[in-house]
Design brief:
mainly beta, eight-stranded antiparallel beta barrel
Length: 167
């Protein structure tokens, strides 16, 4: 975990220019006209059983812009117990799917770091622990700002997540 702290700090610093395309600073712009949410996942279901799988717990922050754009970051121990970070400067949310008011479809895309030897082949396009990632999800808002979400992790599994308002 000690090695993860400088990595997280470095990725956040690298992410700031992308997240703040406007001339305003990231912190001043963090919640202005946006919905900021905490993300927490206590459970990941794997489609295949592997004795090396470990429990996955994820925490993160997500920003939703008025136009439906999403960005954010998450920190978690991956399925093999390695500290991992996912920074997603791209994403979107589409609300009222199928005419159901509280149902939405989300997608995020970005860079993940954490799947290292001997598990580097467990995610596609991995180079020395860095890999591109795209995650689609279905969310249901059960209380204003609060939602349950299921992230689809390719052919690997499903991550069950709770989103709660930050601001």
């Amino acid at each position: 975990m000690k090695k993860l702290i400088p990595l997280v700090f470095g990725l956040i610093v690298a992410y700031l220019p992308v997240a703040s395309m406007a001339q305003q600073s990231f912190l001043a712009d963090l919640g202005k006209d946006k919905v900021v949410s905490w993300m927490f996942s206590p459970l990941t279901y794997h489609f295949s059983e592997d004795p090396e799988h470990k429990p996955v717990v994820m925490v993160g922050l997500e920003r939703e812009y008025p136009n439906g754009k999403l960005d954010g970051l998450t920190v978690f121990d991956n399925s093999f117990g390695q500290p991992t970070i996912y920074v997603f400067p791209w994403g979107g949310v589409y609300k009222a799917i199928g005419g159901i008011e509280h149902l939405s479809f989300k997608w995020t895309a970005g860079m993940m770091y954490g799947y290292r030897e001997p598990y580097e082949n467990k995610v596609p396009l991995n180079f020395k622990g860095f890999s591109l990632a795209a995650i689609p999800a279905i969310a249901y808002e059960f209380k204003p700002g609060w939602s349950g979400q299921v992230n689809i992790l390719g052919t690997a599994g499903l991550m069950f997540q709770l989103n709660a308002p930050f601001n």
